[in-house]
Structure formats: C-alpha cells, structure tokens
Amino acid sequence: MKTITTWKRLHEFESKQDHNTIQLDGNKENGFGPKALLLAGLAGCSGVDVVDILEKMRVDFSSLVIETEAEQTEEHPKVFKDILITYKIKTGRENEEKVKKAIELSLERYCGVSAMLRKNSPVNYKLVIE
Predict the structure, then answer these.
(1) Residue 46 three-state SS
(2) Distance CA 93, CA 49 (A)
(3) Three-state SS for 112?
(4) 3-state secondary structure of 27
(5) Per-residue pLDDT of the chain (130 residues; tens, 9 = 90+)
(6) Distance of CA 84 to the CA centre of its chain
(7) Rounded to an integer, what distance in angstroms lies between the CA atom of residue 121 and that of residue 48?
(8) Are 125 and 107 in contact (CB under 8 A)?
(9) Which secondary-structure segment (H or E) carries 17?
(10) For residue 49, how many other CB atoms are within 10 A of its CB?
(11) Residue 7 CB: number of other CB atoms within 10 A?
(12) What distances in angstroms separate CA 10 from CA 15, 35, 87, 119, one per listed residue?
C-alpha cells in the first residue's frame, strides 16, 4: 500500500492512492483533518466488515450510518484517549444479536484499523437499531 501526499498551500494537502484523491486540511476548512481521517478510516474499515458479515448471516438492513468520536489528551502530542463508534442500522429488532456479533467480530478480529488504534486507545461501540 502506498499513498502520495502533496502540499498545496497553508495546511492543505492532497493525498492520492492509485486513482483516488482526498483533501486534507489541518485547519479543517477544505478537507478532513488528519485525525478525523483516522476516525473515518476506522468507520470505513469496520463498516465493510459489518456489511460482509451481515450479508453472510442473511440479515436484511436498509441503512447503516457509523458515527465515530474521540476525546483527545490535552498535552502534545494530542492523541485519542478513547474512541466511541455508534452504529445506526435500519433492521428488525429480531436481528439485534446478530448485528452485535458482526460489530464485535469486526472490531476484535477483522478490522486492522481498529487493531492499530486499540494499541493506544480503547475502542468502544454503541448500537442503535432504527
């Protein structure tokens, strides 16, 4: 895996991987902040796992929204103290245990981003069935 990140101006960068591009901005005006990008990566990594696992379990759902938030330390380097992931899924209540199992498998076994972040910060989750 390789990315190429190029400074544009001020605190703005453009990062490329293959044919994909994302904007980063330390001022968070014209792109993701670097730490927000870590949280988005965590959500995407776990989301892919959860979708795959639920499909294998034959659990029907019509929507999945993943919110990530982290509290940071006060001193530099400011790192995440803890991370909370909220999974909001539209599915039947009868699927709650299967959805929990899919989330736990993702966070504890399959998602490499979760494994890396967990080495520094606890990663917890909350499930909302809509």
Answers:
(1) helix
(2) 21
(3) helix
(4) coil
(5) 999 999 999 999 999 999 999 999 999 999 999 999 999 999 999 999 999 999 999 999 999 999 999 999 999 999 999 999 999 999 999 999 999 999 999 999 999 999 999 999 999 999 999 9
(6) 10
(7) 21
(8) yes
(9) strand 12-17
(10) 20
(11) 10
(12) 15, 18, 35, 32
Q: Using CA atoms, how far apart are residues 38 and 40, in angstroms rounded to an integer?
A: 5
User: Token match 């795959």: residue?
Assistant: 52
Place of tokens 């044919």: 19
Per-residue tokens: 114: 């979760």
Global confidence as pTM: 0.93
Half-sphere exposure in the Cβ direction for 78 (13 Å, CA): 8
Please name the CATH architecture into which domain 34-129 falls: 2-Layer Sandwich (3.30)
Contact by Cβ (8 Å): 84, 69: yes
